[in-house]
Write a structure and sequence with these properties.
The protein is α/β, with parallel strands linked by helices. The chain has six helices and eight strands; from the N terminus they run βαβαβαβαβαβαββ. The chain is globular and about 45 Å long. Bound molecules: S-adenosylmethionine (SAM). The site of S-adenosylmethionine (SAM) has 17 residues, from β4 and α6.
């Protein structure tokens, strides 16, 4: 399954940290790339690229000025659009249906999400119907879609799991 994450409405400086966490979660839990809209942020892009250089994988980040045009383009190329929102249908109720799709665009918001996004989405999906965070919602969704599968990034840096220590391996 090809998965692209779209992070709407990145705001400087307010979203610097959380957008970075959205990107790190997208990468670590199996998405192929992240696109962000809102304010362009070369610092965000640089920190994500640095993580990829050190920890491996083919994940990439890019900026999109017009998210609605982008979403339409992705739909035209066969992507199914999954919008994460506390107002949506529970992920558990739609997980099997979602797994039938080969290409997913997963959208997370920041500020108030425009009505059009709800209309364009093929699935408006909630992780509980409580307000929480795009980072948590994305992590749980990706983990459920990937069935907790461990991904081998083959990076310069890797960790040898340890019961108590911190074992960092450098290639
Ligand atoms: N105030 C914004 C609004 O109502 O559109 C949303 C703020 S919320 C902190 C930011 C993003 O986190 C949302 O756009 C959504 O993508 C995600 N999110 C928060 N709670 C969620 C939930 N219970 N289920 C799914 N996604 C959630």
């Amino acid at each position: 399954m090809e998965i692209i994450v779209l992070r709407l409405g990145h705001r400087l400086p307010r979203d610097e940290r959380i957008s970075t966490h959205v990107a790190l979660v997208a990468r670590a839990f199996g998405a192929n790339s992240i696109i962000y809209s809102g304010q362009h942020d070369s610092g965000l892009e640089a920190s994500v690229k640095k993580i990829c250089e050190n920890w491996g994988g083919l994940f990439h980040i890019s900026y999109e000025r017009n998210p609605l045009t982008f979403i339409k383009k992705m739909k035209d190329t066969g992507f199914t659009v999954l919008h994460l929102t506390m107002y949506g249908i529970s992920l558990s109720d739609k997980l099997n249906a979602l797994k039938l799709h080969k290409k997913l665009l997963i959208i997370v918001g920041s500020e108030q999400v425009p009505r059009d996004i709800y209309e364009f989405a093929d699935f408006n999906i909630s992780i509980t119907n409580q307000p929480h965070s795009e980072v948590a919602a994305l992590a749980i969704t990706l983990d459920r879609l990937n069935k907790g599968k461990k991904i081998d990034f083959r990076g310069k840096l890797s960790i040898k799991p340890s019961a108590r220590g911190k074992v960092l391996e450098k290639k």
